[in-house]
Amino acid sequence: MTDRKNAYGYDDLILSGTGELFGKGYAQLPAPPMLMFNRITEISREGGAYGKGLVRAELDVDPSLWFFQCHFIGDPVMPGCLGVDAVWQMLGFYLCWDGSPGKGRALGCGEVKFSGQITNDVKIVEYGIDLKRVMKSKLVLGIADGWVKADGQIIYEMSGLRVGLFT
């Protein structure tokens, strides 16, 4: 497995999508256009709301992004489910970064609260997860809470995000 870094650029994320970042047998991020962030700005086993680790990522918003063209024609807004998927993507990435192999799968979310939206005039979307628990047995399972910010304002909050790795 590659050396662990505390941040990853776009080229690294693309390598994750092709299975080249962490190596054979490790979960992969989806490829564009389903990759929902441009960079991971911070990843750590420490810190976060529960002191058990965190991931922070960002998406530079371009008004020509594919979902603005088809989700509510004439009313360009990013589907909320894509924001939730982004934090699931980050949780799966964390589990691989933490050294666990397997194919990543979203296993659920306890609660989601939407209090705003991502429109095509937003400049930057920030995503965050705070790890609550990582279980490593036959199934590797990550549990976290997450949030999404649009230009610095929290607009989505998620609790009980779950991602598992399957071999």
UniProtKB/TrEMBL annotation:
A single Gene Ontology CC term: cytoplasm
Listed Pfam families: FabA
Gene3D superfamilies: Hotdog Thioesterase
GO biological process terms, semicolon-separated: fatty acid biosynthetic process
Compartmental location: Cytoplasm
Reactions that this protein is recorded to catalyse: a (3R)-hydroxyacyl-[ACP] = a (2E)-enoyl-[ACP] + H2O
Pathway where this protein functions: Lipid metabolism; fatty acid biosynthesis
The entry's keywords: Cytoplasm, Fatty acid biosynthesis, Fatty acid metabolism, Isomerase, Lipid biosynthesis, Lipid metabolism, Lyase
EC number: 4.2.1.59
Principal location class: cytoplasm
NCBIfam families on file: fabA, PRK05174.1
Subunit structure and binding partners: Homodimer.
Name of the featured protein: 3-hydroxyacyl-[acyl-carrier-protein] dehydratase FabA
